[in-house]
Amino acid sequence: MGKNNQHSQAADFVIGRHAAQETLQTEGAKRINKLFLQAGLKAGALESLQKKAKAQKIPVQRVPKTKLDLMSDHGNHQGVVLAITPYAYVDLDTLFSRAAAKKQPPFFLMLDEIEDPHNLGSIMRTADAVGVHGIIIPKRRSVGLTSTVAKTSTGAIEHVPVVRVTNLVATAKELKQRGVWLFGTDMAGTDYRDWNAQGAITIVIGNEGKGISPLLKKEMDEIVTLPMIGHVQSLNASVATGLLLYQALTVKQKNGELP
């Protein structure tokens, strides 16, 4: 089997104990087809997972480590792999409905061609921590909801809905028409510590190397920058996103928009 086939197959698996635990105890459990556990391992964590699965009538199978290695594309599976139906995407209205249900102004994240699954997983983890209502990604030239993203997110993938759209520029225009302010990132702009993140907002994060595409940048209401006084003039996408999300959380909590 070729490497690419292994990756496409791995996209239907949840890998690792923590990610499996989170999936089993959330709505994600409805998508589980089978729980695979490594034969010979008697760790308490595995027994707990097995009990949870059996209580939900999910089939459990003990298999050799070599089988789990193949399923996980030789990732760190910790003796646990869940076979699932693919992660479902939602539409934009779902994000607005989620914000409305919580009686909060929309708080979205738009990712312009993020390619590293570890970055997306880390971003989802932080987005869940600060109360983001959903993430918007493009269908092309962007990582989707894969098993690596799920594992890196440590369960956040079950709590943060993702919209996958054909055209980010068109979606940005629609967001603005619906009263959402768009904030992008670049080297020159408003210091993020002085940024007013009140109200309905979407934070736009650019590609790891190229940043936000020129056409999308034209749709921004304001550019926010992270000041850097060292030698390196760019931050990892997930780190930059984390800083901006927590600044937005600080402003929104002071304004009473978030708990």
Automatic annotation (TrEMBL):
Protein name: tRNA rRNA methyltransferase
Organism for this UniProt entry: Loigolactobacillus rennini DSM 20253
Keywords: Methyltransferase, Transferase
GO molecular function: RNA binding; RNA methyltransferase activity
CDD domains, per the entry: SpoU-like_RlmB
Cited SUPFAM superfamilies: alpha/beta knot (SSF75217), L30e-like (SSF55315)
Family statement: Belongs to the class IV-like SAM-binding methyltransferase superfamily. RNA methyltransferase TrmH family.
Family annotation (Pfam families): SpoU_methylase, SpoU_sub_bind
Entries under InterPro entries matching the protein: Alpha/beta_knot_MTases (IPR029028), Ribosomal_eL30-like_sf (IPR029064), rRNA_MeTrfase_TrmH (IPR004441), SpoU_MeTrfase (IPR001537), SpoU_subst-bd (IPR013123), tRNA_m1G_MTases_N (IPR029026)
Domain of life, per lineage: Bacteria
Domain RNA 2-O ribose methyltransferase substrate binding, first and last residues per copy: 13-90
Keyword Cytoplasm: no
GO cellular component, one term: cytosol
GO biological process: methylation; RNA processing
Family annotation (Gene3D superfamilies): 3.30.1330.30, 3.40.1280.10
This protein's record includes keyword Nucleotide-binding: no
